[in-house]
Amino acid sequence: MSQLDERIGYLVKQVQQSFRRACEEQLRTVGLSMSQYAVLRALADAPGAPAAELARRTFVTRQSLRDVLSGLKEAGLASVAAQPSAGRALPVTLTDSGRGMLDQAERIVLEVESRMLSTLPAGDVRQLATLLTTCVENLA
């Protein structure tokens, strides 16, 4: 075992990359990328959120979000209001088609997550979630 294999940060990144790759492969069957799924999920969690908030929630730059949103709008999965509801930010919402696509994508992502955790006992999964949450809180 190399020193890298013992580094928690490296292992977290390795899991994240493997999870993303597996999700991307499966999401491709419904015509979505992981980034598009993340934006759809964020829109469901925060309806009407402005683009800046969506970028924060999905861990991407505003430019990357603009590109993803453009594709989602073209596909009829999201819409951007013509007028701001408050301030200058234009609210972004899921369309009915977007909700349907999110439902399909959610099943795919949850199946990949289930496969990732399949050999871990339920107690270990709960402990892993607790430990990872603590790590996030420690760095916040």
Contiguous runs where pLDDT drops below 50 for at least 5 residues: none
Tell me the strand percentage band: under 5%
Biggest sheet character: 2 strands, antiparallel
* CATH class label: Mainly Alpha
Q: Please give the radius of gyration in angstroms.
A: 17 Å
Oligomer: single chain
Q: Supply the number of structural domains.
A: 1
Class of secondary structure makeup = mainly alpha
| Cα end-to-end separation | 31 Å
The CATH superfamily appears as Winged helix-like DNA-binding domain superfamily/Winged helix DNA-binding domain
Task: Indicate the CATH topology.
Answer: Arc Repressor Mutant, subunit A
Corresponding CATH architecture: Orthogonal Bundle
Strand order in space, largest sheet: 1-2
What series of H and E elements makes up the topology?
HHHHEEHH
Average pLDDT for all residues: 91
Gross morphology is globular
What's the helix count?
6
Proportion in helices: 55-70%
Number of strands: 2
